[in-house]
Amino acid sequence: MKQQKVLVAGASGYLGRHVVKEFAERGYSVRALVRNPEKLAAEGENLEPAVADLVDEVLTGDATDLSTLKGATKGVDIVFSCMGLTKPQGNITNEQVDHLGNRALLEDALSNGVKKFIYVSVFNAEKTHDVEVVSAHERFVEDLKSSSMPHTVIRPTGFFSDMGMFFSMARSGHMFLLGEGTNRVNPIHGADLAAICVDAAEKDVPEIPAGGPDTYTFNETVTLAFEALGKKPWITHVPMWIGDAALFVTGLVNKPLAGVMSFAIAVSSLDSVAPAKGTRHLKDFYRELAAKD
Ligand SMILES: NC(=O)c1ccc[n+]([C@@H]2O[C@H](COP(=O)([O-])OP(=O)(O)OC[C@H]3O[C@@H](n4cnc5c(N)ncnc54)[C@H](OP(=O)(O)O)[C@@H]3O)[C@@H](O)[C@H]2O)c1
């Protein structure tokens, strides 16, 4: 008999799949909220696990149609949400997904007597709040904090999946890096972060900032990617002002893409070093990706 039921929103994403696995392995009954159930069945490109067999129930819903989220939390003890817009998708906005989609889940959870809501926002939100993806996350965090719902907000640095994008560029033999690449980051593996998220279900902590065990400059993170591939690093540094100019022009013609670019520019411009947690190393992650080639 499983102890508690959890709704995982964003279950098909990088973090979501690791979280499904962690909850399931700790004996929770998992209801996965996804747009496309097929995505749960295969391993992801950043080694996120296939979780279709670990899920007890699959619920199909889309944050851009709030009626599909109604009743999602019925019979659930805990809601975990990493449902968020991380790449451009037509004209869908961060406000629709990160703020209003999660707010609809919160309202549903309040009406269904859910005991706890765990939400994944970002680290350094106070320094990057002028970026739309961050402010949309934080509008939801404000809703959560001002509600009567017991909650935890997880504030992670970059995920290994973002470093996976660097790895893909290194595979092509040449990398463009915004700025001097001297800012520091301690990225975290999805499985390490998932353990922190599930621990949060069992503790009473309002906010948890979290990064991985190793801190690198951005230059070092990409050099490691080249090394794992056995290639000589070839990095072209793009001055920040060019990034800003490109952002301005993109904003005129493609707002969704400009939103993603503005987050990348903001993150490249500052240190993102959160309290170090977890045990998995970026070097090993790159080696595993290289072994798939
Ligand atoms: N990546 C990072 O470095 C990082 C760092 C800090 C915080 N975060 C935040 O952590 C969260 C998870 O990040 P991630 O990297 O795991 O993202 P991800 O892989 O893109 O996963 C996002 C999840 O949200 C779902 N989703 C997107 N739009 C939706 C919609 N309209 N309706 C329902 N579900 C929708 C996605 O479904 P589909 O699979 O159908 O697309 C996916 O399951 C995001 O909110 C992100 O902003 C990320």
From TrEMBL:
Keywords: Photosynthesis, Photosystem II
Entry keyword annotation includes rRNA-binding: no
One of the protein's GO biological processes: photosynthesis
GO cellular component: photosystem II
Domain of life of the organism encoding this protein: Bacteria
Keyword ATP-binding annotated: no
UniProt domain NAD(P)-binding: residue ranges: 10-202
Stored Pfam families: NAD_binding_10
Protein name (database record): NmrA family protein
Organism: Chlorobium phaeobacteroides (strain BS1)
